[in-house]
Amino acid sequence: MNSLSTYLIISALLFSLGLLGILQRRNLIGMLISVELLLNAANLNFMAYNRFLAPDPVVGQVITLFVMGLAAAEAAIGLSIILALYRKMHSINIEAAQKMKG
Amino acid sequence: MGAIFRDPVLFATVLGANLPFFTMAVILIFTRHNPRLSSQLSVGSIAVSAVCAISLLAKLFFAPALQYQTLWFVSGKLNIVFGYYLDPLSLLMLTIVGIIACLVQIYSLGYMAGDPGYSRYYAFQSLFAWAMMNMVIAGSMLQLFIFWEMVGLASYFLIGFYYEKWSASQAGKKAFVMNRVGDVGFFLGLILLLLGFGNLGIPELNHAASTHGLSQGLLTASALLIFCGVIGKSAQFPLLTWLPDAMEGPTPVSALLHSATMVAAGVYMFSRIFPFFSGSHDAMQFALVIGTVTMLLSSSMAMVTYDLKQVWAYSTVSQLGYMVMALASGGYFAGVFHLTTHAGFKALLFLCSGIFIHEFHTNDMRIIGKQGGRKLKIPMVCITVGALALAGVFPFSGFFSKEAILSVLAAQPNKIWFAAGLFGAVLTAYYSFRLIFHILLPMGGIEEKHHHDDHGGSSHEHEEEHHGYIFWAMAIPVMILAGVSLVLGFAEHPLEHFIMRSVNVPGELAAHGGAALQTVAHVAAEGAGHAHESGSPMLLILGVSAGLLGIFVAWLEYGRKGASRKGFLSHVPAIWKLFDLRWFMDVFYRKGLDTFMYAGLTSLFTLNDRRIIDGGIDGICIFTEGSGRLFSFLQSGMLQFNLLLMVLCAGAAVLYFVI
Amino acid sequence: METSGLNTILQFAFWVTVALTVAGAAIAVFPRNILYNVLGLALALTGIAGFYLFLGSLFVALMQLLIYVGAICIAIVFAIMLSRPLHISAPPRPPVKMWLSILASAVFFVGVVSVALKTKWQCAAGHVYKASQWSVENIGNALLTRYELVFEVISLVLLVAIIGAVITAGYSRRISS
Fold first, then answer.
1. What residue spans of B441-514 are helical by DSSP H?
2. Does residue C78 surpass a pLDDT of 60?
């Protein structure tokens, strides 16, 4: 329980699940949820390193807080974009959003 | 810079040679729209140049050759210097150029009055004078070549001065292109010298050639190549057809072009490095052949044309041929002296013709004669003086120089050159007096001319006054030149001493021996030992009688009462046509251009342009577009696919580094 | 031994948290009903807040609950309700894509885990673990002294993001209507 690698593996698992979601979900909101998972996996890593390795225990927590702030911003912007897209295309399917295709 | 102001000689040189350039710049930039001011500026500056040149000549008359030079740039082991070389030859030529250019510009005040391109004309005249003066006093062959090209450029501007006229612009182009052909040879020769000898300074070249500092092969090759430049510039045999066409320019331009500047440049360059040329016997022989052929060909052409200016143009070519002959057979002084006298009387002839042309608005000598050309007393007298000088009749300057040339030719071992020279003298006298008689004694008398009556009317008085100004602006230079033609011949002795003083080279040559060079040295020494005295009275008689014979034949056919006024050549239409069409040289060139240039090279270039250059650009376009299309497949719009690839690659990289 | 008993309970609780988190993450990813995904996300985020507690940071755990579970999840639910009606069934997932994604994630997982296991983690020189250093005061001090600039920038980013979100959602409505 109190070992770094346990946390690292858990966070890697979360990250991979998020990755899987991003890669295969076509629902934009589903992708956004997966992105939140990714961010949280990263946060967990920060906290674990902070707990087990860092000289100054404050740094990791501060970074985690910053990431949370950024995640909030990202969620707000992402969701508004999704809403705008939905109004425009009447779909939130990522595969439908191919207007910029080369 | 300070040295320029401290040394009066250098100051005069720099000022005199470069003032016209600044005048040109000022005219082109500031006073373009003020023709009066432009012309005054130009005439003023060329007068200053002429005064500088004369004072230089006077000051340095008894001084040794002066050389000013400064290092221009260094390239490897080569030191290219920029400088002035003032020896008797360049001083004499500088003076000639200055005076003739000055007179021509004064003359142009009248001739060009009211022309829309008046300012432009004076700007180009100044440019021309500047280029020629700098060419004359150039200290190295490279510098000479640069100004040589400037002279070509300026003459292009002036020949094509009436650029709105198709034939004029064509003539300018022709002159330019034909000069280029010769200049390529010239430039190659210079490169060869630079590679083989490593120094292009004129005194150094002359010295090296006369002291066997150069190998015979290099000397001959480079001399032949450099002679190509002379052929182009002085309109010698294969490249002579540009000069008659150059008559498309204004007449004063022709005068300047034919007497002192453009075409004289070639002969001047020949005499400038005369010791160098005379080091190569083969090159001299080649030049002699070219000069003779040119002289005879162009004389024959002059015999059939009715165009006033064309006659003088052909005669210029033939006189240049004379000079080349003289120089090539070793008569250094004879060539230079003929160049000097010719500059005087040819300018005179052209300027007189210009008055006629200006008055009667035609170039045809028959029409001028019919409309009363002889009523214009001053130009009529002057043109006769010029023609007498050209024909080589006694008190006139042409007589002395022609005698000098003939005596040099007579000293050649092969008498054929002498015979050709005599024959050329007959022809010269014939065609020049053919023209004189045409104007002086027109067939069927003088018609009443209506021309000026039409122009009369209310503004008649004013026009007369204006006309007077124009006439005198043209007449005064003409009279001066006529006077010069009268007296210049008697200045032969002092000039000879002056010129020959610098050329101690032939003496050196003789001292160094060399079988091929012996003749040259011998002839030159003989020339130095005075033509008239060493040449027998026989020679004198022959020369004079050749001229008189020509005049007599001309009188028989054109002058005497009831003469047919057709010329003996009209009995043989084929020859007439041959002469009239310039021995089919232009036809030949045109054919050559058509078959070789247009059908051959041009089509190749067109093909190259269409297929390779255009095709290459098209290919680049197609390639760019295709590759763009190719890569646009990656921009599939499938976000997740992109992401998938990215993750796969990143994961693979991680695995690769860890495992 | 009371401490060992407590340890066992803690151990048990830890693994329960792990199970909940992973299950939540799986629910967040796999089901096709988007509402289940959000609930699974909320579960996983709560589990992560639990990890933060195990790691000794009460404050961050609270923040996690507040921001993520409280705010973001609710926002996502709102977005779901504003966008597509839930009863419209989505087209089936293409299997190739599915398997490729699984492969990529697996490769990534194996890579990262092997890195984590292979590396010899070493404590930094001055590392001490003291509960007193994890206090809120320390974090507040750090935020307002050493990281103040970052803090300000983050605030600015949040402000801009809010305005941007309002404009994106609002204007697009006006344009489309």
1. 451-455, 460-487, 492-502, 505-512
2. yes
Reading the block at residue B377, the tokens are: 């007393």
Inform me whether the C-beta atom of residue A55 falls under 8 Å from chain C C-beta atoms.
yes
Q: Please indicate if any CB of chain A lies within 8 Å of the CB of C112.
A: yes
Helix ranges restricted to H, B30-165 = 35-59, 88-111, 118-136, 141-159
Q: Tell me how far apart the alpha carbons of residues B595 and A58 are, in angstroms, rounded to a whole number.
A: 91
Contact (Cβ atoms closer than 8 angstroms) between residue B436 and residue B386: no
Task: Please count the helices (runs of H) and the strands (runs of E) in chain A.
Answer: 3, 0
Q: B235: alpha, beta or left, given left = phi > 0 and alpha = psi -120 to 50?
A: left
Rg (CA), chain B: 30
CA distance B656 to chain A (A): 18
With 0-12 / 13-18 / 19 or more C-beta atoms within 10 angstroms meaning exposed / middle / buried, residue B286 is: middle
Residue C40 included in any domain: yes
Q: Does domain A4-99 have CATH number 1.10.240.10?
A: no
Q: How high is the pLDDT of residue C26?
A: 92
Three-state DSSP at B388 gives helix
Token pair of B110, please? Answer: 């009248």
- Any idea what the CATH number is for the domain that residue C17 is in? 1.20.120.1200
List the single best residue of B640, B645, B647, B654 to mutate versus A (max A Cβ within 10 A).
Answer: B640
Q: Indicate yes or no: CB of C107 within 8 angstroms of CB of B652.
A: yes
Whether C130 is in a domain gets the answer no
Binned at pLDDT 50, 70 and 90, residue C24 comes out as: very high
Count of structural domains, chain C: 1
pTM above 0.80, yes or no: no
The 10s digit of each residue's pLDDT in B574-588 is 776 766 666 666 777
User: Has residue B289 got a pLDDT over 90?
Assistant: no
Q: Tell me the per-residue pLDDT of C98-156, one tens digit each, with 9 for 90 and over.
A: 888 898 899 889 888 888 888 888 777 766 666 666 778 888 888 888 889 999 999 99
Residue A54 has pLDDT above 70, yes or no: yes
Amino acid letter for position B104: V
- For residue B73, list its beta bridge partners: B80
Which whole number is the average pLDDT over B214-233?
A: 82
The number of beta carbons lying within 10 Å of the beta carbon of residue B504 is 11
CA-to-CA distance for C41 and C47, rounded, in angstroms?
A: 10
